[in-house]
Write a structure and sequence with these properties.
It is a single chain. The protein contains 8 helices and no strands. It is mainly alpha-helical and 166 residues long.
Length: 166
Amino acid sequence: MKIVNKILKGILDTVLFPLKPIIEPIIHLMESLIQLQELIVNFAMKIIPAFIQLFFYILDPGKLIKDVIYAFVTGFKLIIKATIDTLMGKTISMIKPHMKNDPETQKRTEECLSPSLLEILILILCPPLAIFIRKGLKGFCTIVITAVLTYFYYLPGVIYASLYVL
């Protein structure tokens, strides 16, 4: 291929000098197409064996049945676990009214409130403001740290603020 390129370039330099601006881009285009073809061939040589292996894996009934059974068993376990968790959650919520006289429950002053859509939007737009809305002036140090983190890099500020807001 290199010898052909040298011969063509020699002909272009001597005989076809006036047509050189027209023919040279065509030669570059052909060279790039040849390189693209080599790239596709090399890529196909790596991908085709993987597809053949996958094809035989799918056609192997032992492995396929084993994978299907594993999927059903795992899905069934997850459904049972979710059902038990739901029942236990309801059980715990039924027990909570009886825990009102517990001194440990009375010590807690903070309530965990889920953030509203507006708070999340403010968190994304201005993380220090979201902390100020959530904590007020009691969170002054947290607001300053969030402002500094947001000033230098936005993402660390959002992550730090989301730890307090979410």
